[in-house]
User: Fold this.
Amino acid sequence: MFVWLSLIAACAWAKSHSPTSSLSMPTFPPSSPPTLTVIPEVLSVSTVKPSVGTTTLYLVNLKSLAQYWNISLVNISNSNISATFNYDGRPYGVVKSYKSVSPVLSVASAGIRTGVYSSVWLVQASTEKIGLPNASFISTQISALITIYADVEFSKTYAVWECYGVHYTPIAGYEWCFEVYVQDSDGFEIDSDPDITLTITMIWKGQESSNSRRSLTTSSEEESYTVCASSWTSNHYLVVCSVPMSWGGYWNVSIANEEDYIVYEKEVLCPSGCFENENGNCQTCRGQRLDGASCDGEGNKLATLTLDKGYWRAAADSKSILSCTDKSFDGMCKGGNKSYYGECRKGHHGAYCSVCKSDYYKSTTSLYCKKCSQSEMFDFFLTIGLAR
Assistant:
């Protein structure tokens, strides 16, 4: 009796906890069998340049055992893409086959920018050749997404010396930024992160450009070598270099990845308040006995220092800035950087700008040279003649 009651209770519990289904079997069978079935309704094909990508479409028509099939392009977002359906190795147009076929979509990526493109195709099936007067066909549309990638083995890089449209000059002791763009095998810029490893370095090469024979060597590798950081931003790599303070002059900027290597030559300027000395070092003007010379602005070099008015020097590599006897605003030594000694007053040249040029003579009433007039030249030669 106890066992019987237990069985009843167990059955009641199982019934109350059994899962319920909202699905119900159809009462009547379909009036007609399925006709045109497309699997999948949205195709996806990917290819890496410059290869050809493929994907297979499965078509089934149960209306008749023998069918004529046709697939034609309705729309594609890039008309330059070569996308065709093939069946049994031949271009897919009107093909007589059985009730099911599996055409292959082929996409050629050469000459196309990387990206994702869309296409729409019309699929038709008929018991007779499509186009005949008595042809009765059924049709549907399918979509195909085409994704084209770049092969990093064929990629190339190039630098643009600006950041966000602003040009920056490399200054010793400061950060310097520029942009690196990546091109695919067709020379198109890659808009999505190509996921390549960039190694960007700066190496000091000397005070002269590659067209000159002069080049100096540094005593410290840390001062003449730096590795730059790069990160992908939008459609390019943003590169930031911490330029060492020690050296001005010319640096080799190398950009390398797995398959590409390129070297640029860039001139690094010494910062304001410093000048590039005869060895290529950025040296502070303070304490160098350069009174009479200005170190304002970037890019000062010993040979092209800007002299103040009233000062002169004897040679381009001289740090000795000498005071002229006349320091007036319109004096003999006008300063500037037109030459290593600055600029002399018109008619003057030589040491301290105190020597008169040809056709000029030293005035007896001032320190300045005056141009000889024709009458003065006549009187001068007449005086010499009478003196004889």
Summary: The CA atoms of residues 177 and 334 lie 39 Å apart. Residues 36-149 form a domain with the Immunoglobulin-like fold (CATH 2.60.40.10).
